[in-house]
Amino acid sequence: MATCGVIRMKDSAWVSVRIQVVGGRFNAESLEPLAWIAQKYGSGEIHFTTRQGLEIQDIPAEKTDEVLKALADAGIPAGGTGPHVRTVSACPGTACRFGIIDAQRLAQRIFDQVKDRTLTHKFKIATTGCPNSCAKPITNDFGVQGLRKEGQTAYVIFVGGNCGRRVRLADKLPFVCHTEDEVVAVLNDTLDWFCAHGQAKERLAAVMERLGVGTLIEHLQTAHGARGGKQ
Ligand code: SF4
Is the Cβ–Cβ distance between 56 and 68 less than 8 Å? Predict the structure, then answer.
């Protein structure tokens, strides 16, 4: 199914439409129109995805355009499929008593910056407020974890994780970031590298293993150092 956010169900006469939800946070005022659309076009139920997204399932395929229009009219963004950065998962961050970094704000900022990039394959990101890692950064292509290091707030970054049939835990970068700006710069470096070296349908983990895990890590470390980042 070519339209972003639309997924063909087991029986091709039916589709589900995925809603973009960043960090599992959804406006209360959008719940009512979402419920109305699910009742009018779907089964009346809304599925919560494993990455904190929402899906309206059991929509007759011929009603797809009507559903997309109804969502757009209500200001509810469909998406979260295809060779793009998927909506960013996040824990509550500083809303949690253990939170060191504002994982929610960072997730939204990251997503706003990179959501329109077209990649060679899907790319998953998670931000998590502290080393308890509730948002599971090590099973994402790019994960960020808050840390208190030598009395300072630090952002630990992991690259190359994925779940699926062949699980791979991400590699921790040998440096930390100290600002959100630095994190976004490292993410852009990672995406540039992924676009330059990735083949169609190849996740970041597979590219790293094909070219040597250290190839990406050294590239990121050099670029971070060239921007004046502390090692
Ligand atoms: S990762 Fe830390 S800050 Fe985030 S929900 Fe878990 S305990 Fe709280």
Answer: no
